[in-house]
Amino acid sequence: MKKVAYDCDVLVIGGGIVGLATAYALTRTTPGTRVTVLEKETGPARHQTGRNSGVIHSGIYYRPGSLKARYAVRGAAEMVKFCAEYGVAHEVTGKLIVATERDELPRLHALVQRGRENGIPVRELGPAQITEYEPEVRGLAAIHVGTTGTCDYSAVAARLADASGAEIRYGLQGEVVRIDRRADRGVAVLTADGAVVRGKVLVNCAGLHCDGIARLTGDDPGMRIVPFRGEYFELARPELVRGLVYPVPDPAFPFLGVHLTRGIDGGVHVGPNAVPALAREGYGWSVVRPRELAGTIGWPGSWHMARRHWRYGAGELRRSASKSAFTEAVRRLLPAVRADDLVAAPAGVRAQAVLRDGTLVDDFLIREGARAVHVLNAPSPAATASLPIGREVARRAVSALREAEGGG
């Protein structure tokens, strides 16, 4: 049999922060491993990584023992250290989670307990203490989480790309057209420029397109990505907010609600409002890709999800259609805000994994196939937790690589 000439040992699809953190971990934990990253955009972090609010999450929301809790708590500390080491703009500001209605108080108290179980410093506040942190914010009670911060995740991704030592192919050279996987010949990927890239093991970190990449590989992901657009505004009077202010989230949904985030540039993001996107990269209502939309509508889980959560979705759609309704939601936390204080800002799209029965996958979902590792759900706090997630994905990839090499 003719010996296969491999271009790399591990072929990573996706140049967002998780894919780049995986490449970074591979070259550090297993020196000598040849890594190639394929990214269809002209640079790294053009989608979820570069279009979020830049928060370094503490891990307070997540069920103790879950991957999200473990990775977020560990990842927040590591991200601050990484930013300091590589000169990435960041700040540890702390944040407030504020209850504005009495029925939110039990959920707020549950967050206090969850934070303590996850080893996160939490301080409980009354109404007067809230104004010590945020003079314009009003609430019945709040908690202050000291380990939350902000950073520039696009810059983090760029540093990971440079420091990984991986070969990174962008644009047509990194756009996947077809995948051929064979037990004795590894994985061959045809790219849009007509080249074939061969690796011994494939890692799928394709974010909004991860389910499609899994199917191209020949693996059934058992889920579909249903894209949700996060609509943001910028606060025209940023002096109204000193740091980060969040509502008490509804535990039935993997969204944190409309919140206020002072970024490292001094501006204050308000949002997101989460609505269905009409394309995987649908950053506005005018962006419609019929084939992608048909795939979402044709997935049984989409209909089960819609029937189960239509009231919640109707509220999000109302706030999308009506700026006054969005302003009303913000005023629950920040009564001084006016509609003309909110200036439209770039939107993001969240890659939400949905199971066939309509379950919204809440935790990280990583599955393995022959010569393949698929990251199928990397929700918030994926950016915060990218360094430990990258190590975990790298560990699985190295295990698959050793098995492949051992088998010839």
From TrEMBL:
Q: Which Pfam families match?
A: DAO
Is DNA-binding a UniProt keyword of this protein?
A: no
Cofactor list:
FAD
Taxonomy, superkingdom: Bacteria
Recorded hits in InterPro entries, A to Z, give: FAD-dep_OxRdtase, FAD/NAD-bd_sf
Q: Which UniProt keywords apply?
A: FAD, Flavoprotein, Oxidoreductase
Task: Cite a single GO MF annotation.
Answer: (S)-2-hydroxyglutarate dehydrogenase activity
UniProt-listed SUPFAM superfamilies: FAD/NAD(P)-binding domain
> Cellular component terms, GO, for this chain's entry?
cytoplasm
Which family is this sequence assigned to?
Belongs to the L2HGDH family.
Listed name of the protein = L-2-hydroxyglutarate oxidase
- Which organism does this sequence originate in? Streptomyces venezuelae
